[in-house]
Amino acid sequence: MRKTFLSIIILLILSSCGTSKSINNENVTLRLLDDFVIPSGLEIEGTKVGGLSGIEYYDGEYYLVSDHPGTPRIYKAKIEISGRKIDTVKITDVILIDKGSPFFKGNHLDLEGIRVEKDRILLSSEGSIQNGKDPSIFYISPSGAYLSQFSLPEYFLSGGDQQPRNNGVFEGLAKSYDETGYWAGMELPLVKDGSKPKLFPTKSPVRITRFDKETGEATRQFVIQLEHITKIPWMYFAVNGRIELLEYASDRFLVLERAFSAGHGTKGNTVRIFDVDASQATNTLQENNLRKIKFKAAHKNLIFDFKPFRKNLKEQIIDNIEGMTFGPDLPNGNKTLLLISDDNFSSLGKQINQIILLELEFKDHIKVKP
User: Fold this and answer.
1) Bridge partners, 11 (sequence order)
2) What is the DSSP letter of 20?
3) Dist. CA 334–CA 42, nearest whole Å
4) Could you list the residue range(s) of the whole structural domain that residue 67 is in?
5) Is 370 part of any domain?
6) In this structure, is the dihedral angle defined by the CA atoms of residues 298, 303, 306 and 308, taken in order, positive or negative?
7) What is the pLDDT, as a whole number, of residue 141?
8) Can you give the pLDDT at residue 8?
9) Handedness of CA 312, 242, 366, 81 (dihedral sign)
10) Which are the contacts of 87, defined by CB distance < 8 A and separation ≥ 6?
11) Sheet holding 111-116, edge to edge
12) CA distance linking residue 222 with residue 250, whole number of Å
């Protein structure tokens, strides 16, 4: 009986190590085109290029946010795409966050998301929950000066009754399709909402909240369920989180999830992109504890898994992908999607600053803005 029980457990674990959903390209098709690795040790204006946790394409330029807490900064870059390949990447400038503002003095800046407007830049920070430092979403000027901040529901604050998980708060920002707001997504569930993903399927709901871009107030929220861990962690650490999102049509999103299992060397990451439909999802904005209510999560379809394409990448590594942005159109009229990885300044072993170029094709019935 004991042997039978152990066999069942082993079978469940092994069967959970593959991709849990099949590819479904009903609405969106993604194709890998190219990748580019920024040389390690590159320094620009006295700063080491690394920790690149977000990317934004705006008015012909790219903005790359670095999550270094001591010197939070944004790099401006030119990424030249020739045909269907990345030709060159040139970092042209550094925007240092002016930490003289009282807002910055009272916050721990762990920058993760970036979106750019004509005269201001929106950033998200995870804060430091374990040290009582709240997450934040705020505007800065193009020169790095503090402008204003969004008002967060109490359950996102470090001292609240709910309390977010440390290093599991706001990962990524998305401009709303109607251009009147922004979506901010959690990486992991709030402590009382659900458990962190494990090797077996769990209820791991993460909140995605819409904020009005002018008032900074939260106006709507929906939930997606995270996928389970895909690889057995041989060194006692594994995580899967929702990392980035983009709204490409009303209530339709591209959502990036990244799982990591320790002990697999450079093959520890599993990176997948989902097509998410939130049109029928419950508005959970006023709910303090998702375990205590019945709600309808947004519908997910897996549309891209990097695992089969690892061998096609420059170093055959899919690294710690953290940022995603729509890029310029290709000659055939399809859009580009660019992703960027955070090398953690190579503090955890071999990691790279990697830019990945994908071709994005929407089906005819999807109304995407030009």
Assistant:
1) none
2) S
3) 32
4) 23-362
5) no
6) positive
7) 98
8) 32
9) negative
10) 80, 81
11) 111-116, 121-125, 136-140, 146-149
12) 14
SS3 137: strand
Q: What is the DSSP string of 147-186?
A: EEEPPPPGGGSTTSSS-PPTT-SEEEEEE-TTSSEEEEEE
Between CA 141 and CA 89 the distance in angstroms is: 25
Q: What is the pLDDT of residue 3?
A: 43
What CATH number is associated with residue 334?
A: 2.115.10
Number of domain units in the chain: 1
| Token pair for 61 | 């330029």
CB 229 within 8 A of CB 198: yes
Q: Are 355 and 339 in contact (CB under 8 A)?
A: yes
Residue 153 resides in a domain: yes
Output the CA–CA distances (angstroms, integers) from residue 367 to 140, 205, 247, in the order listed.
32, 28, 12
Instruction: Give dist(CA 291, CA 281) in Å, integer.
Output: 16
* Cα(79)–Cα(67) distance, integer angstroms: 21
pLDDT digits (tens, 9 = 90+) for 288-338: 999 999 999 999 999 999 999 999 998 898 888 999 999 999 999 999 999
Rounded CA-CA distance 57/202 in Å is: 35
Residue 4 lies in a domain: no
d(CA 270, CA 183): 24
Supply the pTM of this predicted model: 0.92
* Residues in CB range of 73: below 8 A, 6 or more apart: 47, 65, 66, 94, 95, 96, 97
Specify if 67 maps to a domain: yes
3-state secondary structure of 360: strand
Q: For the chain, how far is it from start to end, CA to CA, in angstroms?
A: 62
Residues of the chain with pLDDT under 50: 1-20
Q: Measuring CA to CA, which residue among 362, 361, 359, 363 is closest to residue 31? A: 359
Contact 219, 194 (CB under 8 A): no
Give the Cα separation of 34 and 367 in Å (integer): 27
